[in-house]
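Quick one, T. Sequence first:
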Amino acid sequence: QVQLVESGGGLAQPGGSLRLSCAASGDTLGDYTVGWFRQVPGKEREGVSCLSRVGGVTAYVDSVKGRFTVSRDNAKNMVYLQMNSLKPEDTAVYYCWCSEDSWGQGTQVTVSS
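Structure tokens:
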């Protein structure tokens, strides 16, 4: 089974940027579709972005289109989420996911001045 570990969360000011990283072990991440979800207390987990296994097809929730970019480095078994023009409403715990239905432990992103 794939194990996923996120990093790169933290505090950012509105308009700032963060890059989340997700390191995979236990299997080859390139064999799976990957994605990022986020969750705030009291709300359901929300899909933010995904990246297909083949063809590099991406999808984004409307609220992050044009600001977030998902990418992968199969050679390093890594997935990334570049987050630009951050807004306070982006504050959440962000989770890495792959289509083996594996999840990371989450990394907190807080956007505040």
